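Per reviewer request, we include the raw input and output of the structure prediction for the construct analysed in the revised manuscript.
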Amino acid sequence: MDINGSVALVTGANRGIGRAFARALVEHGAAKVYAGVRDPATVTDQDLVPLRLDVTDHDAVAAAAEAAGDVSIVINNAGIGGARTGLLEGDFAGARQAMEVNYFGTWAVSRAFAPILARNGGGALVNMLSLASWLGQPQFPGYAASKAAQWSLTDSLRQALHAQGTLVVGVHAGFVDTDLSAWTDAPKIGASTVAELTMDALANDRLEVLADDETRRVKAALSQPASTTPGS
């Protein structure tokens, strides 16, 4: 896929990984990059086009699709952690919110923009996933479950949209150095590195990005027997 001259949409583009995606698209020659955010006033980059978009609001998603009918690349990046839900205690509100944003939000945006991508030649759909797509996380089970569901959805979209010429890319990473991971001192990869690896995947029509060594290790271990040891 040729990024140069393309028109792209990035959800959650006002900070963190989303902003890094948007900046990378501009740097790789995208002609226009929509920054899909709940509050357009939070988009401070002058070369981005703010677009009001709450991925959990189906009317807002439909309105964004109507406004951005020229896109050829859609990056589903908007996401939350769902940290309020513990595995064995607490209510399920955080987990339900994580599922609404990370899973159903990605599904809603993908469903709304798939016909637009088809009309514009196929293009690409990128979903920001996680190492947690494949690895249970007792500390944040709601987030991990939402990412596992999002991974399954990504595979379904990949199969369904192949016929219309849409490249569907799943991006997996462990901890990324953003405010969402500020609570841990675990090793982290830079948001700009994730974005650059994704641009390379788009340019070379690759279906998956494994952004760091830990993610590659976990993916390689999926064929091993079930274990009670984290990450094995």
